[in-house]
Task: structure prediction
Amino acid sequence: MDFLLAVETGGTKLQLALGTADGTILFRHRMDVVRSEGSKGILDAIEAAMPLMYRKAEELGGKLLRIGWGFGGPVETERGLAIGSRLIPGWTEFPLARFAQERTGLPTYVFNDTNAACWGEYCRGAGRGTDIFFYTNMGSGVGGGAVIHGALYDGQGYGALEFGQTWIGGPWGGKAFGNEKVEDICSGTAIEERLHAMDIPRNSALWALCGGDQAAIDCKMLGQAVKAGDAFANSFLDTVTRAFAIGLSNIVSCLSPQRLAIGGGVSLIGEPLLGRVRTYIQEFTFFSSDGKYEVVPSELGEDVVLVGALLLAGAR
Result:
């Protein structure tokens, strides 16, 4: 039996999965990204994990056939070139497909991670049954991808629908309209950096959750404080989700998707986040779109990039 290897390299997450061309995951292996070690640290970790993946394929009665790689940054799809990363140094103009193929002997296909996630979600998750589908993630960064009439949209082949890189106003002041990107406000990285620097009221539940160490506050704690009814946390989440909804309203106006799915670690806050996005997006979308789209959570969770990479590589 032939297996595929799916690889996900993002700003915080590093995953490998053994699976099949229909997107079924049979075995997964997860590691953490050490940003200070840059791309070399990630590649070294993957190389060290390869014997495990080969062994698992043999145990399951097959062998590895090819690799599908979801990369956390823009990609030149045809050549499998990593154009660069805003979060991890060392990826600029890196020939990722060629590098992986030389090291493993396996044909390797590289995709932007959010594009891979979008395709996975369209085929096996929240996008099923749609004609026009949009996926975005609120993770260490913010990405975007779309399927239009059954085809994954990739622009000229250098990345497209980079939702996180679209410009909106600065909701906390100090920056004029158009001087802040969606990713600068709504990514997990941006949220945590802002919470570490803000003047948080002493009566906020966040202080108890972080044990008095403001630098330890993360998005999970933010979600816990929101659900506990903390006024500061709820106000903060209001600001973030309103900015996110402004960005999504532009997607609705341009693409008219039937469904928009949100994934990534920040989305795990759940309905307090999704409900706000649904409410605020209605303020900004053009009236012709009323009632013609829905905002839903990702169904595939942390497997979404891996499933998409398996499907895309399996079709090659």
